[in-house]
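In full, the data.
>
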Amino acid sequence: MGRFFVPRVKKNFFSLLLLSAIFSTIIVAQLGRAADFSPSPEPVAEVEITVLPNPMDRGAPGRVVISGLRPEAPVKGSFDGKAIFFFPHRGELMGLFGADVMIKIGDHPLKVTWGPGPGEQRSLSVTVKDKSYGVRDIKVPQSQVDLSPDDLERTKIEREATIKALGTQSPDKLWSGAFIEPVNGRINSSFGRQTRLNGIMNPRPHAGADYLVPEGTPVKAPADGKVILTGNHFFAGNSVYIDHGQGLISMFFHLSRIDALEGQDIKKGDILGLVGKTGRVTGAHLHYGLYINGARIDPPVFRQMTDTINSDEFTNLPSKSKL
């Protein structure tokens, strides 16, 4: 019988084959893991929303602080149906709102939405308290109360212009730092007072602060912004309206002279005009008003709030109300 010849193979050859098989198994196992398991998602920070102050007075400004979101995160908000715009502040997001001087007393909804698509929404409740601002008595010529047809038509046109200006909602925040006082002087008629005009109570409260200063006193812009309206109006006299961005509007009435121009970019401290006694007044003074997205708020209280949010006091404020 013939013999089959089986060649002798060195042990090193079998060793290489064994190692190759082991490495192949490891590679296949790793590829399997890559296919079967996706990377672990990054941990999501808890979103915390703080409303300050809560409760709050009617006519007061407020702010919403959101932590746990990126400063560039898309966020929308509203208070009592009025928009809240947010801006980055110390690694968080902040939005301003106001409780209008004639708002209904009680609880009001504040909503915040963030994230892509429909996003995530959180609804909070803000309690508005009543506040007595007092009553003032004013006597003016009766022709400034019972208006002629021509004056009525004039005031209608002026009101349309002012409503348009007060509805301005520029997307960017134009101001920075704390607001300053437009003049240095005593407030002789505070925000929110009811007015008894020639013996008859006006249902609309005083929507600004009146500073008793001499005629000709320079009026300074309280913060950066853009002039959106100037003019001589029947009730307000020579007037200047400034857009500070994101629905924050300031206004200055009864000027003897207007120095600002419509469309002009304004810096904090720029002279807007001079104090006067134009319009329906009893003497020289400055009327200073502030609106936040349609809500009439107390200017000195707002200035104090801007002092707070631009100081170290804000981080340790004991009256925080986390909802």
In short: The mean pLDDT is 85. The longest helix spans residues 11-36. Helices lie at 11-36, 149-166, 299-309. The radius of gyration is 32 Å.
